[in-house]
Amino acid sequence: MSYESYFAERREQQLGELKEFLTIPSISALSEHKQDMIKAAEWVAGKLESAGLENVKIHQTAGHPIVYAEHLHAPGKPTILVYGHYDVQPVDPLNLWETPPFEPTERDGKLYARGATDDKGQVFLHIKAIEALLKQEQQLPVNVKFCIEGEEEISSPNLLTFLNEQQEMLATDAVLISDTSLIEKGKPAISIGLRGLCSLEVSIQASNTDLHSGTYGGGVPNALHAMVELLASLHDKQGRITVEGFYEGVPELTAAMHEEFEKQNFNEEQLKKTLGLSTTYGEEGYTFVERTGARPTLELNGVWGGFQGEGTKTVIPKEAHAKITCRLVGQQDPQRILDAIIAHLHANVQPGVTLKVKPGEKARAFDMDPSIPLLQTAADAYEAVYGTRALFTKDGGSIPIVETFSRQLSAPVIMMGFGLPDENLHAPNEHFNLENFDKGLLTIVEFLKRV
Amino acid sequence: MSYESYFAERREQQLGELKEFLTIPSISALSEHKQDMIKAAEWVAGKLESAGLENVKIHQTAGHPIVYAEHLHAPGKPTILVYGHYDVQPVDPLNLWETPPFEPTERDGKLYARGATDDKGQVFLHIKAIEALLKQEQQLPVNVKFCIEGEEEISSPNLLTFLNEQQEMLATDAVLISDTSLIEKGKPAISIGLRGLCSLEVSIQASNTDLHSGTYGGGVPNALHAMVELLASLHDKQGRITVEGFYEGVPELTAAMHEEFEKQNFNEEQLKKTLGLSTTYGEEGYTFVERTGARPTLELNGVWGGFQGEGTKTVIPKEAHAKITCRLVGQQDPQRILDAIIAHLHANVQPGVTLKVKPGEKARAFDMDPSIPLLQTAADAYEAVYGTRALFTKDGGSIPIVETFSRQLSAPVIMMGFGLPDENLHAPNEHFNLENFDKGLLTIVEFLKRV
């Protein structure tokens, strides 16, 4: 039976299984979901087992568990290690979800749920592709390992230790990851670059209690004034980040790179329409694709302080808070960037208030040479299924562990993404376009057969 | 019996009654407390009745009711109308209250509860002072009217209509209000100036959904960036408000006025210690007392957008919000100020985002001539009880209706405050110093006897 027929026959049943996976609220950032993390890990282990994988094991870590499995019966053939994650982002603001985040719902050929595209849906494709190969051919064309973790959305704090301890078990010729996106519907992509990341939380305390704006207004520091002034100082009017030393290690875009970005022929008008933007925005002198693929950023992810309720409250808030993340490129060093931002904040904060900065996650950017044969094989597989050869792109997101993986296992990383850029990952109404569910299964099978 | 003995005998009982009043969560800003507003109005009416006032009536309005009462048996003597309010501010952040806001608790000679000083405690003093006079002397030395409303904390939207409709019933020679503060413990004050007020809410929308900061970061507008930049543009580095035309109608401080402020001999070091400030703050060239008494302000009362939870969420928020209030002085026109701020916001907002501004409350500043005899009588009354003559001060707060009251009833307004500036009004752990509870009762009796 052709793989098309094989998957078509099982479509409803397999979608039902994925929905089951998506009902588990495995939010790694929130400690109240600890049990759900275990449940999700067990669900993955169960599916790997029934797909025909061997030595399936849930490895405990200091945080959430890691699921391992293998199928090593292709002597002389390369080994491919599939990495993915079963954890998902938080879901607030909950009221903006059209259907509840953990009640998967199909609408217009899309499956809506938290984790649908990032990354449960894409992990599921790999399990089912292996299952199909084993059912259809009773063997695999390559050796396969799975390593599915539960802490990707919180920067994988325990994966490095696991990689170090299990170096032998995890040894591989290439790492295969599906946690990125097509350029747009019908235009596949293989990411050969990921931005790095660093994060920090900023607090300002101005007084020991909230104060009445009549009695004290104009005479005491206001934590919110100090905060907005400080945060505004991080960018100039041209969208450039003003932190001293921030751009150290950022490669200048060569004419050749400009040209490569041009080739993507990115539809900016479509993007604006989809997101409801009247204009894109960012650093002067760069296109949207360059800004998000090859330039670093400093983004405010959250800011809050004072009264947020109904009506008016004439209060001078005693404290204000902000959450910041940066995306890093090239040789930018996450620790040096954090140090530079912290120095900027201390140098620019209004005198007389107390500033506290808590550094968070850190990950280097990652880049790969597209001439590696396995990357070309992956592009061929896309072409066979999508009718369009995959382009090699730089992805704006960060999978912090990719660079570590590549270094620790001395293996190239093949990022075959099946998401779409407007699938609301990390936002309300996350979804997975089922066209890429169907084509994703076939592309993975095609790739493994060609390796 | 002396009034000292009279009040001393009844102290526990009267404090018990006040605590009963303070258990009613009469938050006028929150619609869920509608029934509590009625309960508080009925409580006030009951106490006025049992104090010996006549024609006690709860007047319905389009919002919360107004309680009226009178005692008009002193022919040939002036009429004094007591104004106050039974509504209170919201209580969040609730977790910062040492004891629950609606469970009145005595600690160190202070009574802690929302409304203890603003304004239930001070309204209560007037009811009990009248009761004492009637019990001790079977008559009042003046004619007295009470007008106690339930919408002061939301800018009294229905009081003006009531004043217009009931002009005859409310006719008076002077309005007596206790809703302000002493300068500090033992240093009484009569406010002869109140700042005006205007308020607005600002929203910025940047896209139609929250976006992933990896995929889109650096290439699309971030609502929080636009908001902090816009809000930071409202002040310059010297603490001056940059809105064009904002200072029109603000009287320049004369040397004589400087001197008057100096006389208050305000203890700035003590203030800093109490509030945990390393420095006061504000417009260059003015002292703390001048900044809060005679200068206008523009304060951020609340700012929010994006992720406020535990951990990191790499989101570009689609929207951001802010609440702003201004305190106004002299001839500043609230409507013109609002117009000027709105024009500033539209002129300075980052291109490509959608700005919405919702204007709120408006009230003019109010000033009175301290040579009016009744004001001097009030100062005498303080001197008799506190041993220190009250100073005539400018108060930073706003009682929006004071100016309207004075204009509508063609009567001076005597503001005899018994609060203290550090009693956390509008903040967690609001309280009322019981020394001023005791002395307040005596001062009001003393004043009414001297009129």
Automatic annotation (TrEMBL), chains A, B:
Q: What are its GO biological-process terms?
A: proteolysis
Keyword Hydrolase on this protein?
yes
A single MF term (Gene Ontology) = metal ion binding
InterPro entries in UniProt: Cyt/Met_Dipeptidase (IPR051458), Peptidase_M20 (IPR002933), Peptidase_M20_dimer (IPR011650)
Classify the source by domain of life.
Bacteria
Q: Which residues form the Peptidase M20 dimerisation domain?
A: 192-347
Stretches assigned to coiled coil: none
Q: Cite the entry's keywords alphabetically.
A: Hydrolase, Metal-binding, Protease
* UniProt name for this protein: Acetylornithine deacetylase/Succinyl-diaminopimelate desuccinylase
Question: What is the protein's species of origin?
Answer: Paenibacillus catalpae
